[in-house]
Description:
Elements: E1 2-6, E2 8-12, E3 16-22, E4 33-43, E5 51-57, E6 60-68, E7 71-75, E8 80-83, E9 88-92, E10 97-102, E11 110-119, E12 130-134, E13 141-143, E14 147-156, E15 159-160, E16 169-176, E17 181-183, E18 190-197, E19 200-202, E20 205-207, E21 211-215, E22 222-225, E23 229-236, E24 244-246, E25 249-251, H1 254-266
Antiparallel strand pairs: 1-21, 2-3, 3-4, 4-11, 5-10, 6-9, 6-11, 7-8, 7-10, 9-12, 13-14, 14-15, 14-16, 16-23, 17-22, 18-21, 18-23, 19-20, 19-22, 24-25
Amino acid sequence: MADLLPGREVPLGKYTTVQRMLPHRERRTVGAWCFLDHFGPQSVINMPGMQVPPHPHMGLQTVTWLLEGEVLHRDSLGSLRTIHPGQLNLMTSGHGIAHSEESPKDHPPSLHGLQLWVALPKPSEEVEPSFQHHPAETIPALDLAGAKLRVVAGSAYGATSPVHVLSPLFYVDARLDRGIELTLPDEWPERAVYVVEGVVALDGEPHGPGTMIVMRADVPACISAIERAHVMVLGGAPLDGERHVWWNFVSSSRARIERAKADWRSGSFPTVPGDETEFIPLPD
């Protein structure tokens, strides 16, 4: 009824380590979601916190959902925005954008959040780059008697987020009291649950933090909280064809990724105003 994906630890900049859930050797995408990093919870007392220098993106949208702390976003469009818990940053890279992410100098003592990527549909892969910031009060909140939900992106549970996405999808933050059951949206063919905190059960099997549970298509699914739990529920319609993911580039065309590599190597990507940190070089 479901596939279980364990994460792997990946360094992000000099001071942050993430649990990377997607892409995975057993599963590259869930709907249009092609990347999921979970960072923290991490104490950043007397530490720089997140420090990710300018780097490029192409062919995707980044979705940043913060649970604790603060992260300052800068990009080559001139965007400058500090994100706080419960707020959402969404950046559309389209044909190419550069950005950086860092904890402000005077930051809270802990850092915790998730960043996901959405592979753009083929007609939108080369759209103009853009940036959106959504305050917490604009993200739909639902209270289902023991299950507190935030519909972060897309549509689910009868609510639709104002976040402008280009793919048919959903992304829900769910906090469940002990013993509460949550049925996954069955209108979407591809669905997954990522356990942030606590323990949930599917078909009587318990699953703890750092586990992604990918449901089989067209099979009803329901999770129950063995203890208080915090999960992210995500998915959507299948992608419109194969996607290639190399470093920070996503495309339906391998040749387009090669061109993005050459553009970054030659300095053709735009710079990030206000960030004089050296750009991240292409991986070896």
